[in-house]
Amino acid sequence: NAGVTQTPKFQVLKTGQSMTLQCAQDMNHNSMYWYRQDPGMGLRLIYYSASEGTTDKGEVPNGYNVSRLNKREFSLRLESAAPSQTSVYFCASSATGGRYGYTFGSGTRLTVV
Amino acid sequence: ILNVEQSPQSLHVQEGDSTNFTCSFPSSNFYALHWYRWETAKSPEALFVMTLNGDEKKKGRISATLNTKEGYSYLYIKGSQPEDSATYLCAFRDTDKLIFGTGTRLQVFP
Lengths: 113, 110
What we know:
Chain A has strands spanning 4-7, 10-13, 19-25, 31-38, 42-49, 56-57, 64-68, 74-78, 87-94, 103-104, 108-112. By secondary structure, chain A is an all-beta fold.
């Protein structure tokens, strides 16, 4: 049982390049989330999808887009990467309402130079 | 933007000491309060999901209490061990998403 799988684990981008972070879960969870983690800032919500077919902005959505491809997959796209997007990105999933807690992926460390 | 505050930011204790941390959150429109344990180079793992005022949950040597009326939760670790070293996050459920605090980093020295 893999839980939440994120790819890639590491990535270096040049300013202006684009990329998509992939996330898939095999727990039949309805809700999925993208967070970024920066030193001293904790986990900040970028976008989330409460159920298949819906997406909503979180606290820091600027510069990102998301796609809930199906119930299992939720991708995060950076259209034109900026150094301010250097961060560690975590995908998570949960049952509706998160009543059993969130399950997190292993993270993607992204550096934009 | 809802604010979730944790204190202290960091804590160093000796093996065998008991310790506790605080999480403060908005006391209105309460849905749930989560605690997570986050070890270095790993992902956060859920410890507790608390929903009722006065709730007390326990997992081994770790326990948590909840006061929704005044907006705080305590996490206790009894007899800390080096393997308890981690960052402990609390998160407040805002309708359909979690807002995380910045965490308390615990280091337990042998």
